[in-house]
Amino acid sequence: MSCVVVCSGGMDSVTLAHLVHDEGRLARLVTFDYGQRHRREIEHAARLAANLATPHDVVDISKLRGFLSGSALTDDVPVPEGHYAEDNMRSTVVANRNPIMFTIAFAIAAGAGADSVAAAVHAGDHFVYPDCRPEFVAAFAEMERLALDGMWRIAFETPFVEMSKAEIAAVGGRLGVAFEETWSCYEGGQRHCGRCGTCVERREALALAGLEDRTDYEDPDYWQSVTGANAPGVT
Amino acid sequence: MSCVVVCSGGMDSVTLAHLVHDEGRLARLVTFDYGQRHRREIEHAARLAANLATPHDVVDISKLRGFLSGSALTDDVPVPEGHYAEDNMRSTVVANRNPIMFTIAFAIAAGAGADSVAAAVHAGDHFVYPDCRPEFVAAFAEMERLALDGMWRIAFETPFVEMSKAEIAAVGGRLGVAFEETWSCYEGGQRHCGRCGTCVERREALALAGLEDRTDYEDPDYWQSVTGANAPGVT
């Protein structure tokens, strides 16, 4: 049993990598460079690969950038601030991003002789990103079964697909994940901004999981004004 | 109604491009540069795009080459000669090639505001390539429907999926396709070799369709020794 984990360097996929590594099944980590604004996540994935002594493929698909249009993550349009909510976060949808990344991950798994690909899609993304939902995951797995039929047999693992980000944070907490060594911010600065949708979501998830948030934020308190939260350890 | 056609420059996808163009629906052609040995097909696709006055995207995915291993089409292993038959042509299977190319084509279609993607998968490939079969096509379309749900609605057209290559050649003949301006050979030379699986298949298809083959082959007679054919116009 060996598994290729798609890892952005964010808290969910880093937790997933730790989970698979703990089970002794981690074959490789795969990270995509698609010209994203928040390139620091790639460095964080590389550091994780070194920590776990695991081969790491950084797949450069940045030449696709001109085709992956209409998204605040790659284009020169502002990243929305505030809480993850359908209306403002729709501008972060990159058309067909997950299908492209996952098909490449399956090719890597075939080349590496691995028998599964794992990805950290989760319930918190369902309402914004259609390619994170359970029905997409099932259809993708079936498509790959048929695409590789008779040649390779590679399963698709998405253990977090019905979990909230806070539940994933709790899993990471139990596994001892150093969340301060993961990257979430979409802004691409040197520190987490604390204001963009993923920063607010990250802060909230760690608080709900009862974990201390050691992340260095430019605006550490903004999230409370958006979520109305009053988390332990946060004043 | 506008359609993005995945076009390698080979006879099947060039025929497909003409078919969609004749219907007034051709939005763009998309060709993939994946480090294939037979790069001349890319030039043939570019010429077609110029002839049809259609925008042409050549998508460079050659950086994936290291991951698309185990295939005679990209690696330094011999291209098999002779007739298309499962045993010798299996070495031309690139793991997950069609899923990767088609997901990128769907992203391009989303960016271009097109409402379909068309690909020239056909029945002659079913026994070698799992990702050319009708059940794969149906699963892929369903996966994309869910991946883009609520954001984009893009259909997947594969009008040749139940046709033989000879039947496609006949369609091309009716549309006036200049087959001598298409490229099939897997060897990557200046002329069609006439001996590799796709050359033999091409020669046979045009003969079965009753079309004159104006292609310049290095070994124009080899195919008959393999197929046992005695086609009109060929001595």
Description:
The structure is a homodimer of 235-residue chains. With 235 residues, chain A is α/β, with parallel strands linked by helices. The first copy, chain A, has one domain (3-183): Rossmann fold, CATH 3.40.50. The first copy, chain A, contains 8 helices and 5 strands; from the N terminus they run E-H-E-H-E-H-H-E-H-E-H-H-H. In chain A, helix 6 (165-175) packs across helix 7 (197-208). Chain A is globular. The first copy, chain A, starts with a strand and ends in an 8-residue tail after the last helix. The model of chain A is unreliable at 231-235 (pLDDT under 50). The A-B interface holds A 57, 59-61, 63-64, 67-70, 90, 93, 95-100, 103-104, 106-108, 110-111, 130-131, 133, 135-136, 139-140, 142-152 and B 57, 59-61, 63-64, 67-70, 90, 93, 95-100, 103-104, 106-108, 110-111, 130-131, 133, 135-136, 139-140, 142-152.
Q: Give the CATH superfamily of chain A.
A: HUPs
* Strand/helix succession of chain A: EHEHEHHEHEHHH
- First-residue to last-residue Cα separation of chain A: 46 Å
CATH class of chain A: Alpha Beta
Question: How would you classify the helix and strand content of chain A by structural class?
Answer: alpha/beta
Tally of structural domains of chain A: 1
Query: Sheet bearing the most strands of chain A, described?
Result: 5 strands, parallel
Biggest interface, chains and residue tallies: A-B, 43 and 43 residues
Radius of gyration of chain A: 17 Å
Query: Mean of the pLDDT scores of chain A?
Result: 87
Low-confidence stretches of chain A: 231-235
- Determine the oligomeric state from the structure: homodimer
Query: Could you please say which CATH topology of chain A applies here?
Result: Rossmann fold
Estimated helix fraction of chain A: 25-40%
**How would you sum up the global shape of chain A?**
globular
